[in-house]
Sequence to fold (189 residues):
Amino acid sequence: MFNVVGMTSNAGVGSKFSFYIKSRRGEAKRATKALMLPSPIGDVRQNLAELGTISVLVVEDNITNQKILCKQLTKVGCKAIGVGDGKQALDWIKNTKHWEGMEPLSIILMDVEMPVMDGLTCTRRIRELESLGEMNGHIPIIGTSANARSAQVEDILQAGMDASISKPFRISELIPKMVTLLKGDYFIP
Fold:
C-alpha cells in the first residue's frame, strides 16, 4: 500500500510525485541447494586448456566493449590486452614476438569499423608485412562486426582476416573459433 504525500507540476517541464510505501521487513530465506548445470565457462576453459596460455590482442574502439571482452577472456584463462584502433594495434604488435619484441601474441580480435585506422586497413597492413618477411609467422585474426551480411563477411575475408564473428557475441561462441584457428585449422566462417 502506498500513500501520495505531495505533487508539483510545471507546465512544459513535467510533474513530480512524492509518496511512501508501508511495508514490513521479511526474514531472509536460506539458500537451497542449487541445481548444477554444465557451465559454458567450464566448457570454454576446457577447450583452451590444451593450447596453453593464449595471448589475445583486442582491437576495439568502444572502450566499454573492449574492457568487457578483455575481462571475459581473462576469466577463461587468456591473457588479453586492448587497444582502440588499427594504428595502436600495429604499434603494439611491434613489441611482440611477431615483430621486434618479446611479448607473446597468439591471436587478434579486430573490430572492423574504427576511427584513425579501421580493422580492414590494419589487417591488410599486417598481411603485407607478413608477406614481406618483416613479421614472423602468421597471426590469426578474427574480425568482429555488427554488420554480418554476406558482403561484409566477404570484405573481412578479402582483407586477410581468417574468420569473423557477429556482434554481439558470447564468449562461448568466440572460443571455438579461436581454438580452431590456433590449431591451424583455417576455415571460412
The CA atoms of residues 83 and 91 lie 10 Å apart. The two ends are 56 Å apart (CA to CA). The domain at 40-182 is CATH 3.40.50.2300 (Rossmann fold).
